[in-house]
Specification:
Layout (H helix, E strand, L loop, with lengths): L1 E8 L2 E2 L1 H10 L6 E5 L4 H9 L4 E5 L8 H14 L4 E5 L2 H14 L3 E11 L2 E8 L4 E6 L6 E5 L15 E5 L30 E5 L9 H11 L2 E4 L1 H5 L20 E5 L5 H7 L4 E6 L12 E4 L2 H15 L1
Parallel strand pairs: 1-3, 1-5, 3-4, 4-10, 5-9, 6-9, 11-12, 11-13, 13-14, 14-15
Antiparallel strand pairs: 1-2, 6-7, 7-8
Bound molecules: flavin-adenine dinucleotide.
Length: about 325
């Protein structure tokens, strides 16, 4: 029996949670532990993705809810059979999983890209060295096993499941561990196609030379209805906001087409985009590591190649 922890974001189940449901339903009828206000629409979405049951943790106003959620799950685990609890590799999920690990005295394996269950044995796969090697780890401790899974490890797919049973769970007092309140939150304004769901992504790196040249990336993206991405180098340089960062400490993406311009292809960048279906790289250095994952490589100056690409794309539309 697998449980999936899902946090509510902007009134909807976090997408990574729906991805994990795709995995969990291959192991039986999964239970979702849902942290958020919830609604009929939310629960119907969870059922549509295969949830048979929802344990609904309702956070108190302004409370972070994280310590209380971990305490609640620890209590639920004591009363119900559960072998595996899946979390997404997100800030909230990491926080809840870590506290739950401490409460249950169980190990937690993070950064997983796959989880395999064979009888009572659970094996977790991690990528290391930029995804060039895989490491399998099995739990020796008794269940429940706690695993944090990277976004995009599975594809979220509705299966037309019926409405799940929903049980409201009171959040227990978590003592001083829960004494923190959210006093304000800021949602970065998102415009145009987003990295998480765009079919095409155009990413710029330091090879663009200056912040104002990121306009070239936007000009390529526009006729393709693509999302725009960035390397950490240009995020750190303040050229674009962190929300655009692709890689180990940014977003993991798997678009149909990923165009990388002026990007060296450092391991920490590759780990976030190497599973894209088609990778096109433009770099003036033919030895750049990005070419090792590229399906199509253009050795050239971005200031020469991108304007011609923009011209060709605009002539087409
Ligand atoms: P550079 O490595 O400087 O590469 C620029 C490239 O542009 C070069 O290959 C050069 O040949 C090419 N170039 C230069 N001029 C031109 C031109 N005119 N035309 C064409 N090509 C040109 N990085 C990420 O991206 N995402 C992450 O999430 C991330 N997380 C990290 C986490 C940790 C713990 C650490 C230590 C690092 C992380 N990094 C991450 C940073 C990473 O190691 C690299 O420093 C970064 O990806 C490099 O960005 P870049 O390719 O834009 O710049």
């Amino acid at each position: 029996m697998a449980w999936v922890f899902i946090e509510e974001t902007n009134g909807q189940p976090a997408v990574v949670g729906l991805e994990l449901l795709a995995k969990a339903r291959s192991l039986g009828s999964p239970t979702v532990v849902y942290l958020g206000t919830g609604s009929d629409e939310v629960f119907s979405t969870l059922g549509d993705h295969g949830a048979g049951e929802v344990l609904h943790l309702v956070p108190q106003q302004a409370s972070m809810g994280i310590a209380q959620a971990a305490a609640a799950i620890a209590q639920l685990v004591a009363d119900r059979p559960v072998d595996l609890i899946l979390f997404g590799q997100t800030y909230t999920d990491r926080d809840v999983a870590g506290r739950l690990s401490s409460r249950l005295d169980r190990p937690v394996i993070s950064n997983a890209v796959d989880v395999a269950v064979d009888g009572e044995s659970v094996t977790v796969t991690n990528e290391v060295f930029g995804g060039t090697q895989l490491v399998d780890t099995t739990f020796d401790a008794p269940a429940p096993h706690i695993v944090l899974v990277r976004p995009k490890s599975y594809a979220a797919e509705p299966v037309g499941g019926s409405a799940p049973t929903v049980t409201a769970v009171q959040l227990p007092d978590a003592g001083h561990a829960g004494d923190a309140s959210v006093t304000g939150s800021f949602a970065e304004k998102a415009e145009g196609p987003q990295l998480g769901d765009a079919a095409v992504i155009v990413t710029g790196g330091r090879g663009l030379g200056a912040a104002e040249h990121y306009a070239l990336i936007e000009a390529v993206a526009s006729p393709l209805n693509a999302a725009t991405g960035a390397t950490r180098a240009i995020v750190d340089a303040g050229w674009v906001p962190y929300a655009k960062q692709v890689g180990q400490t940014g977003k993991t993406v798997k678009p149909d087409v990923y165009i990388a311009a002026g990007v060296s292809g450092a391991m920490q960048h590759l780990v976030g985009m190497k599973d894209s279906k088609i990778i096109i790289a433009i770099n003036k250095d033919e030895e750049a590591p990005i070419f090792s994952v590229a399906d199509l490589g253009v050795v050239g100056d971005v200031h020469h190649v991108l304007p011609r690409l923009i011209e060709a794309l605009n002539a087409r539309s």
